[in-house]
Amino acid sequence: MYSNEEETTPEWVFELEKQFAEDTAKFKAHINKLKDELNKINVGIKSTNEILKSSNALMASATERMASANAQMASANAQMASANAQMASARERIASCSTKIESAGLKKKLALKEMNEIQTKINKTKAYREETDKYWNDLINKEIEKQCTSRQDRCSNIITLNSSMKRLNNNNDHNHKHTQTKKNKKKLS
């Protein structure tokens, strides 16, 4: 036989059971909440993993493009260095040409100056020659005039003499021809 005391469960046990059931329900609710959060975290992790994969692919593509850009940049730098060397060479040639042009300009100025001096000398020589020619022509003309004047006197004497001589010669020629003809006739006979 049991006593009533033995059969009766103490109140605190019920309270403990009730408390345990409430705590278990709270715990299960909390676990479920944690499961939901964990599922959300797992979904976030999966999404993050997909984003990371995509980011890694983008990073790999960007790295390739960066490597290509670096190669292009290196090529551009080499071309720039070559262009700079060509530019420096061109500047040197331009400087050399400028020096030559300047030198040629100075030579041209000197040549023009010398040519002008020569032309001045030529002009002076021409003027002197003209004066000299005029002097000598005037002198010659005066001498010719003198000689002509004296020649005219002589010429008129000579002309008179020549006329007389011609007449004499004509008479002599006529006489000579006549004599020759007679001689020729005698020879023929």
Automatic annotation (TrEMBL):
Domain of life (superkingdom): Eukaryota
Positions of the UniProt region annotated as Disordered: 166-189
Presence of keyword Coiled coil: yes
Entry annotated with the keyword Coiled coil: yes
Coiled coil (residue ranges): 52-93
Compositionally biased region (Basic residues): 175-189
Keywords: Coiled coil
Name of this chain's protein: Uncharacterized protein
Protein's organism: Rotaria sordida
